[in-house]
Structures are given as C-alpha cells and as structure tokens.
C-alpha cells in the first residue's frame, strides 16, 4: 500500500508495518498520487510518483530509486499515467507540470525509452480516468456494458496492464516464456546469490545464455552457460561484472535465453 504525505512516500505491508519510505516535497498541496506498473516485465512492479519538484521511479519491493527527473507543479490531484501513446510497442510515462517557485516547467510531458534506462515493456494505449483500472475500459476506448470486478480478477487499481515484450541495448527481443521462471536466493544480496532456472516445458529444461543489465540498459555481465561449464539450472553469481569488478548497490535485470525464448528476473545488490 503506497501513501504520499507532504514529506514522505511510504509503502506499507498488508499488516500495517512499513516496508520502505522515501523523503519527498509536497508542501504546496500535501496531495500527490502514484502509479504502479511492471516497467521491465519481470514480474516485479515499479512505483512512479510525482511531487512538486521531481518525478521518481522506485523499485516497489526495496524502495531503491531507479530514475528521477526534475519538474515543477503546484500539485492538486494529478498523478503519473502509463500508456503506449505512440504505438511503438513500449510504455510511455505522462506527467503534467506547471510553473511553481523558481521552476518554470509547464505543460504535458511524455518520457519513453531513453528516459527509463532499460527499455520499458508494452502497455495498453488507453488510460481513461482518474480512477483507472484495466476492467473499466476496453482497448478501443469503449466502455463495457457490465464491468467485471477488478478487485476479484486482478486487484490492480491504478495499475496499467503490461505486455510481454521488452528489449535491452537495442537487441531484437526474444519472446518471454511464461512457463519459465528465474529466481535468486538471497535477493537482495551483498556478496553472492544463487540463480535458479525453472521450466514446465519438456522441450527446454536449461538455459544456454544469461545476461545481466544495469538500470541504464548496459550489459554488465554475460554467461555462456555451455562454455563456462556452469550448471545450467542453478549457479552462484558473486555480483561482479565481466572484468571481475564488484558492481555497486542497485537493481539489475538478469535475462536468461534458450531456444528463441527468454525469462527475466530483477536482482538487487546491497553493498
């Protein structure tokens, strides 16, 4: 549960305990909003929040700041919107700004692939109202005669629907395979983690290649799982790059490939 006050954005666990918080500045109105979306299509959401000074994207589980952009707005009830506005197969982030204080940003701003570091996944092309949820509008903009209960089927209020395709470093994307999974334990980690691949497919039981990307979309580590002699379903990574250097604290996307398909996972390093 994400709640914004004048000075903090706070995410609560279901039992009411605080998962993480981040200082913000919302002295103008004390009211701001946030949006949740799985920008990288790895099964773990990001939180997008705007206060009167900045637009920020957080890892929803850890609260690590992934991206930020200066703007200005005398906020009232507006909040960031996610949609594929140019039909390029990737989500865009839309925000509004107005002059406030010593800043003069004004108008509607759209941020896309270059702004998010690792390119964002596909999204719906529609976001129709303040209380948007994916069951209250059809893809063509028409409204359903009888709306299915979002809280029963999806429970993702103000969360955009993600697509299945994402790309890294302008590579041609391989199809993400839903029957595969990639996990790491522990996660977050500081010295080493065990990456485990699972598959329900009889045709593919192991990975052939694995790549690690940082939040700028830069590949920092690559594994040829055949030539490296690493176990194809489980192996230990020590958090180093291709040159053997320790990678800094941050969120990394691990992408496993095999026979034309791929599976992704988000891994967090804490030094």
From TrEMBL:
Pfam families per UniProt: FlgD_ig (PF13860)
Source superkingdom: Bacteria
Protein's name according to its UniProt entry: FlgD/Vpr Ig-like domain-containing protein
Domain FlgD/Vpr Ig-like as annotated: residue spans: 202-255
Alphabetical list of Gene3D superfamilies matching this protein: 2.60.40.4070
Organism classification: Bacteria, Bacteria division TA06
InterPro entries for the chain: FlgD/Vpr_Ig-like (IPR025965), Integrin_alpha_N (IPR028994)
